[in-house]
């Protein structure tokens, strides 16, 4: 059977190029990141659920972000750990397609949640007296449902379209997990439709979300600058710091990775992989840390939790 008629049933993932000899050691920080993400986001969910004073729109959106971060970690880290800990690089086609579906779906969910959190800050700063009447529980639930439908609906065609393509010759992926553009490049057929579809999804989700977030902060700055008191201006802006950090954690590596793929042909494969890791791994790990440090209610509730645990350990 010729190569052109051969359809591969598996792909091979890639770790950090040139560092294969120390992959087992690199698995230690990866495991630590996975544990940190699981622990931090689970604690955020538990604190918001158990503390009645946190049953407010801002913290409901934070819970959505924590769920999304857990999903993103669960989608990316398992295949990375099998590469670095066990040296297993082969992944079946169906498993690969399932992984890329969940990675891209949770990535769009994260962008969508960050957009809704920006809307939450606009309402809280621009219309504080109407905050509770605008962001009611049914509306928040509707926003959450819309985020799920949008993210899942847009990515259902991706694995179906990729499943129909023939794959031959080179089956080596350039990352430690399956991504739509990466898999598409290995097809031995015309992929213009797949490429156009992928571009449409990126522009209509990540692109639109980024523009709307910037516009939201334009409205916030316009409102804040109209406040006479400098103390009140700083207080209003301080409520946005955590969200701004999360936006930067999510979008900065993504923009850098996009620029490298298009203009940085000089960039080493290792730098591309590391930037990809920053994009997919750091937000789930650092978002809980940022919100714990910057949000007094969450920080005080977690301190009470650890103090009570410590007292229980000391008491017989």
Automatic annotation (TrEMBL):
UniProt main location, coarse: membrane
A Pfam family assignment: 7tm_4
Keywords: G-protein coupled receptor, Membrane, Olfaction, Receptor, Sensory transduction, Transducer, Transmembrane, Transmembrane helix
Membrane topology designation: Multi-pass membrane protein
Record's subcellular location: Membrane
Transmembrane annotation, as ranges: 24-48, 60-86, 98-119, 140-162, 199-228, 240-261, 273-293
GO BP, sorted A to Z: cellular response to lipid
Superkingdom, natural source: Eukaryota
Any GO CC annotation of this UniProt entry: plasma membrane
Recorded GO MF terms: G protein-coupled receptor activity; olfactory receptor activity
InterPro entries listed in its UniProt record: GPCR_Rhodpsn, GPCR_Rhodpsn_7TM, Olfact_rcpt, OR51/52/56-like
Domain G-protein coupled receptors family 1 profile span(s) in chain numbering: 40-291
Role noted for this protein: Putative odorant or sperm cell receptor.
Protein name in the entry: G-protein coupled receptors family 1 profile domain-containing protein
Organism per entry: Myotis lucifugus (Little brown bat)
Organism phylogeny: Eukaryota, Metazoa, Chordata, Craniata, Vertebrata
Gene giving rise to this polypeptide: LOC102433166
């Amino acid at each position: 059977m010729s190569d052109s008629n051969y359809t591969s049933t598996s792909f091979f993932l890639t770790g950090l190029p040139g560092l294969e000899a120390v992959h087992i050691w690199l698995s230690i920080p990866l495991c630590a990141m996975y544990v940190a993400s699981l622990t931090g986001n689970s604690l955020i969910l538990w604190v918001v659920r158990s503390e009645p004073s946190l049953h407010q729109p801002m913290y409901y959106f934070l819970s959505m972000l924590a769920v999304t971060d857990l999903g993103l970690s669960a989608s990316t880290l398992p295949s990375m750990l099998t590469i670095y800990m066990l040296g297993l690089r082969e992944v079946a086609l169906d498993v690969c397609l399932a992984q890329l579906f969940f990675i891209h779906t949770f990535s769009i969910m994260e962008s969508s949640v960050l957009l809704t959190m920006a809307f939450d800050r606009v309402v809280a700063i621009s219309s504080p007296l109407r905050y509770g009447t605008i962001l009611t529980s049914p509306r928040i639930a509707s926003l959450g449902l819309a985020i799920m439908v949008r993210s899942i609906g847009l990515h259902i065609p991706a694995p179906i379209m990729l499943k129909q393509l023939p794959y031959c010759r080179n089956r080596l992926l350039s990352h430690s997990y399956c991504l739509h553009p990466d898999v598409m490049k290995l097809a031995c057929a015309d992929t213009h439709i797949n490429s156009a579809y992928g571009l449409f999804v990126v522009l209509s989700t990540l692109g639109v979300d980024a523009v709307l977030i910037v516009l939201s902060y334009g409205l916030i700055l316009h409102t804040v600058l109209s406040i006479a008191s400098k103390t009140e201006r700083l207080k209003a802006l301080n409520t946005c710091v955590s969200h701004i950090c999360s936006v930067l954690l999510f979008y900065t590596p993504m923009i850098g990775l996009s620029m490298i793929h298009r203009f940085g042909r000089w960039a080493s494969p290792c730098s591309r992989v590391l930037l990809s890791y920053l994009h997919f791994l750091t937000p789930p790990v650092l978002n809980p840390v940022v919100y714990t440090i910057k949000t007094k209610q969450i920080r005080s509730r977690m301190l009470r939790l650890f103090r009570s645990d410590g007292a229980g350990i000391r008491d017989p």
